[in-house]
Amino acid sequence: MVSREFLQELPKCEHHLHLEGTLEPDLLFPLAKRNGITLPAEFPQSVAELEAKYCQFRDLQDFLDYYYIGTNVLIEEQDFFDLAWAYFQRVHQQGLVHAEVFYDPQSHTTRSIPLERVTRGFQRACERAEKELGITSKLIMCLLRHMEPEHCAETIEQARPFIEQGIIHGLGLDSAEKPFPPELFVECYEKARSINGDLKLTAHAGEEGPARYVSDSLDLLQASRIDHGINSVHDDELMQRLAREQVMLTVCPLSNVKLQVVQRVAQLPLQKLLDSNVPFSLNSDDPAYFGGYILDNYAKVAEEFPQWDHAVWARICRHSIEGSWCDDKRKTELL
Ligand code: ADE
Ligand code: ZN
């Protein structure tokens, strides 16, 4: 088995990280206090209670119910900055060199927090991370699939200036998967593409939902990579396509265990992805809730796939850099 020191040194990229999912209990409660937010009675009321709850969720929806309550403590531009800056500092210590990070504007605009404020706070943290830590990053806004597609389209309109300027570099789709298939969002993706043809596209698919949601995300939404995507292994034709077109899956090992998608990391189809030449990266999803950041995810996979040698890890690392949305110059630096 490779050592944690070896994994630490690998130039790691993250492609599946929800900034709201980095809200640690030790920031959540101070922010609630700072902003005068009363958390609902059913929500844990102390760091210890919240940490205990974060240990296990029944499924994706059970997690999301807590997650959306937690985000209510984020109000001021400084809160969004503090959240993202804390994340960058933490992962700098874990050997992260490039991060493509999600946020959910609708979690905030539905509470009358303007999209501009959220985006500016996160953007400032990204700029500081590059300047002071050498971590490059891209912002990806996600549409909440449990919201009406019309609301999603309005959100894209609000984001127009940021999409035009490339400050928002990509579009994604997240939240409860199974009841909300990709076809509901075809017009939204078309609209976003019409604002900036260079906008990168991704979507959560095949986490709890079927392999068909993966192929539909590629065909109907024109996504160029897929978040989670692990249920693709149930469809041979789709697997061949992912390999042929080198569509990267952004796999989240600790998340999949905490949300009971699998019982153990060893049950993830990572060997099958490698054997089928389907590229994937390893990611932390919502690390404050799932018990570990990027290096912790790498280390858990190394522990449960002890037969993987340095060459296998070098291949995973290369796929992760090649599948990134940074420019070729940055890729060459990282390779
Ligand atoms: N939002 C935050 N984490 C998510 C996940 N794992 N799946 C869907 N939506 C999410
Ligand atoms: Zn996710």
Automatic annotation (TrEMBL):
Annotated Adenosine deaminase domain residues: 11-335
Enzyme Commission numbers on file: 3.5.4.2
GO cellular component: cytosol; nucleus
Active site: 207 (proton donor)
Taxonomic superkingdom: Eukaryota
Protein name, UniProt field: Adenine deaminase
UniProt family annotation: Belongs to the metallo-dependent hydrolases superfamily. Adenosine and AMP deaminases family. Adenine deaminase type 2 subfamily.
Function: Catalyzes the hydrolytic deamination of adenine to hypoxanthine. Plays an important role in the purine salvage pathway and in nitrogen catabolism.
Pfam families in the record: A_deaminase
CDD domains cross-referenced by the UniProt entry: ADA
Annotated Zn(2+) binding sites: 16, 18, 204, 285
Cofactor list: Zn(2+)
Any one Gene Ontology molecular-function term assigned to this protein's record: adenine deaminase activity
Residue numbers binding substrate: 286
Region forming the signal peptide: none
GO biological process per UniProt: adenine catabolic process; hypoxanthine salvage; nucleotide metabolic process; purine ribonucleoside monophosphate biosynthetic process
SUPFAM superfamilies, per the entry: Metallo-dependent hydrolases
